[in-house]
């Protein structure tokens, strides 16, 4: 798990995923107006002093950190004192202030929510996938917050009786937050292992359900991060996390029916940069235990039918060598960034090699697909008669179908896709002997679509396109453009807008960005987004460096001591869209979440004049203090993404952009900050401290709002689908208000 990887808000915000909804909340009995919409001037000097609610002012208690000859003064470090009366009182005051400042938006929020709900088929069912003697699927029911996890026996077909495996709605009757973690079904189909989080802290307790009786066994495993059944259906391999740092660091073998104290430790990862994860091979013959840092990996395995066997190491770790492994016949299939020959540069976009299971080390590797400069091998999945590789090229995913006996480009082919701008996601492909490959296709204007591809026939079979009521794709258009960064690099940008929109310099713009961990942001379908587009807002994703849209080199160009590229790219994209006419220079709103919240904080410090409004979700803005505290979850692991501030040169570089340290006495645009008290990825005090410091230093009178979920919620906010839709409706209402967009414009 990456602390600040894209999360549900990131995907739902713009061009994200299909929408969800909730019955409208009752309007408040008193509704003071929202802060007035901005005038048509630069965001940093737009709004006269509002009358009405008074913002809470956090007290100052200077805390000094001396490092590398520099004194860092943190006036708001006291906000880390979780659960103390003074901290809770301050956070409640922030919530009350936000509620008072935005109460006038209630009608707009409910109207937008109604639109979102009207585009949602509330009762729906996913395409079933086969695993063993059953087909599995999820379905939703109108008015229910959570999906049902179900199955039917293959024998009997569609008329077979449904078996509900997990009903999260039932659990939610007694829990305010319900998060489902790792899932695994035994090969005989009798048992289901499932992880459950009821706090939002992404801390999962593993339960095992006997699907013949519907009852849970006595077995429980705390803090589980992944789980695999051995072939016998009686042995579990699970990875668990450290209770303090939340690093997945041990893998145990558990015999069902035994007390957890009897579990056998198979491997402990002692390097604090690395995390463990267990999985079955595509063939189901092997169990892999992967150990990964941000830049380095190592894989071990054992036979699935011999869970008592020791783990076999594939290749010892070497700094900056990343590899992953699958299995076919008597061979391991390995995706690696190792050099093809000694002395050569590493294969940044990865290459493919094979080795015998009996001789897995690098000395035995035989290359089948070489490194390609402009094409990244993202993943590979093996089947008995074909193989599928996901590739990234020119900011898009492609699917390549290969002969599993050769695994070579020669004789392979790509699946032809129906649109020029799209995203692909792997479907559920659990059967090694399958005759087809299932994947999901969508674009900014095409809802999520499930296809089965039959390699022998080269036939693409449409299984389902998500039904979106009250939606007409002919009314909208998507487009890929490029902005030029100051160093000449071309930055891809995905646009979505109402058909007929002209790049005349008058359009309100909503720009989203992320740009970290090599995580790509692909243009996807988001039904809720059309509440913005229908009002004339141009929605855009900036595919900035630090992400992975253009392969691993794109990531390398925006991490560690090249991180500034991420922020300057976003600024250059903003200015580029203005120059191209896609955005009015005084009507630009931006959003980012998690590491994208760091992006928001950095660009607001650098160029607050460019933006009218900004939404920062669970923003990672206190980079120096967080990365200095190795007791916090995941800090050590992320030294290879941001740097270690205990090293002078890395400290000095981080200090250039860390949002909290760079808040200054100047005018900022309107800012809405959202977080959760129980977020395990970005601790609540980061956004709380940032807001407190901004409020004390900024020279403008534009709204600065903090909303914090004090009830159980996580990195992605509330857990229910309707609750999330309410969150989005509020954000969109606020955003439109800040942009001065009415229902008629």
UniProtKB/TrEMBL annotation:
Domain Peptidase S9A N-terminal: 57-464
Lipoprotein as UniProt keyword: no
Regions crossing the membrane: none
Keyword Protease: yes
Signal peptide: 1-19
Key words of the record: Hydrolase, Protease, Serine protease, Signal
Region (Disordered): 23-58
Coiled coil (residue ranges): none
Ranges annotated as biased composition (Low complexity): 40-49
Ranges of biased composition (kind: Pro residues): 23-39
Pfam families from the UniProt entry: Peptidase_S9, Peptidase_S9_N
InterPro entries: AB_hydrolase_fold (IPR029058), Pept_S9A_N (IPR023302), Peptidase_S9_cat (IPR001375), Peptidase_S9A (IPR002470), Serine_Peptidase_S9A (IPR051543)
Family membership noted in the UniProt record: Belongs to the peptidase S9A family.
Name of the protein: S9 family peptidase
Organism in which the protein naturally occurs: Polyangium sorediatum
């Amino acid at each position: 798990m990456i602390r600040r990887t894209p999360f549900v808000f990131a995907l739902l915000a713009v061009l994200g995923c299909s929408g969800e909804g909730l019955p409208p909340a009752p309007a408040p009995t008193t509704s003071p107006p929202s802060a007035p919409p901005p005038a048509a001037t630069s965001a940093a000097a737009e709004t006269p002093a509002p009358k009405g609610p008074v913002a809470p002012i956090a007290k100052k208690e200077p805390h000094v950190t001396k490092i590398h000859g520099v004194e860092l003064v943190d006036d708001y470090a006291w906000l880390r004192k979780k659960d103390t009366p003074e901290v809770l009182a301050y956070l409640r005051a922030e919530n009350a202030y936000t509620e008072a400042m935005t109460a006038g938006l209630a009608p707009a929020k409910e109207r937008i929510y109604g639109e979102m709900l009207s585009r949602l088929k509330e009762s729906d069912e996913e395409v079933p996938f086969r695993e063993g003697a059953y087909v599995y699927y999820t379905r939703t029911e109108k008015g229910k917050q959570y999906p049902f996890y179900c199955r039917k026996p293959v024998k009997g077909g569609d008329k077979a009786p449904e078996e509900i495996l997990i009903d999260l709605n039932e659990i939610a009757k007694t829990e305010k937050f319900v998060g489902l973690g790792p899932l695994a079904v035994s090969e005989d189909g009798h048992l289901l292992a499932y992880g459950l989080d009821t706090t939002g802290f992404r801390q999962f307790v593993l339960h095992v359900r006997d699907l013949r009786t519907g009852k849970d066994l006595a077995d429980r495993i705390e803090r589980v991060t992944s789980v695999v059944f051995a072939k016998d259906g009686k042995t579990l391999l699970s990875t668990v996390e450290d209770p303090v740092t939340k690093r997945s660091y041990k893998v145990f073998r558990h015999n069902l029916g035994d007390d957890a104290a009897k579990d056998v430790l198979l491997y402990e990862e002692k390097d604090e940069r690395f995390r463990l994860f267990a999985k079955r091979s595509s063939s189901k013959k092997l169990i892999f235990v992967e150990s990964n840092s941000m830049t380095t990996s190592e894989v071990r395995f054992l036979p699935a039918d011999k869970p008592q066997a020791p783990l076999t190491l594939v290749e010892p770790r070497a700094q900056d060598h990343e590899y992953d492994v699958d299995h076919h016949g008597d061979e391991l299939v390995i995706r690696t960034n190792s050099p093809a020959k000694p002395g050569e540069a590493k294969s940044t976009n990865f290459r493919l090699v094979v080795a015998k299971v009996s001789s897995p080390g690098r000395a035995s590797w035989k290359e089948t697909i070489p490194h390609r400069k402009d094409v990244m091998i993202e993943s590979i999945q093996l089947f008995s008669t074909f193989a599928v590789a996901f590739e990234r090229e020119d900011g898009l995913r492609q699917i390549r179908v290969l002969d599993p006996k050769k695994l070579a480009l020669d004789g392979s082919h790509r699946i032809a896709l129906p649109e020029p701008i799209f995203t692909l996601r792997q479907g559920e492909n659990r059967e090694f002997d399958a005759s087809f490959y299932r994947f999901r296709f969508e674009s900014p204007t095409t809802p999520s679509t499930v296809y089965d591809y039959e390699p022998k026939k080269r036939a693409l079979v449409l299984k389902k396109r998500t039904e979106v009521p009250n939606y007409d794709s002919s009314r909208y258009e998507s487009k890929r453009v490029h902005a030029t960064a100051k160093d000449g690099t071309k930055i891809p940008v995905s646009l979505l807008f109402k058909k007929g929109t002209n790049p005349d310099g008058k359009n309100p713009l909503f720009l989203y960005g992320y740009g970290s961990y090599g995580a790509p942001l692909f243009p996807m379908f988001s039904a809720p987004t059309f509440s913005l587009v229908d009002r004339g807002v141009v929605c855009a994703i900036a595919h900035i460096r630090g992400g992975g849209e253009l392969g691993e080199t794109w990531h390398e160009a925006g991490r560690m001591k090249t991180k500034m590229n991420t922020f300057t790219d976003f600024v250059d994209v903003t200015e580029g869209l203005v120059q191209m006419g896609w955005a009015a220079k005084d009507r630009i709103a931006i959003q980012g979440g998690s590491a994208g919240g760091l992006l928001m904080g950095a660009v607001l410090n650098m160029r607050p004049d460019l933006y009218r409004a900004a939404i920062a979700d669970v923003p990672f803005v206190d980079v120096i203090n967080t990365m200095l505290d190795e007791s916090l979850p995941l800090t050590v692991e992320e030294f290879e993404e941001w740097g270690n501030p205990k090293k002078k040169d890395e400290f000095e570089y981080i200090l250039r952009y860390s949002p909290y340290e760079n808040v200054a006495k100047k005018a900022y645009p309107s800012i809405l900050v959202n977080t959760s008290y129980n977020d395990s990825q970005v601790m609540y005090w980061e956004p709380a401290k940032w807001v407190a410091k901004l409020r004390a230093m900024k020279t403008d009178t534009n709204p600065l709002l903090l909303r914090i979920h004090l009830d159980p919620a996580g990195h992605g906010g509330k857990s229910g689908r309707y609750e999330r839709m309410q969150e989005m409706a509020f954000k969109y209402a606020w955003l439109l208000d800040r942009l001065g967009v009415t229902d008629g414009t």
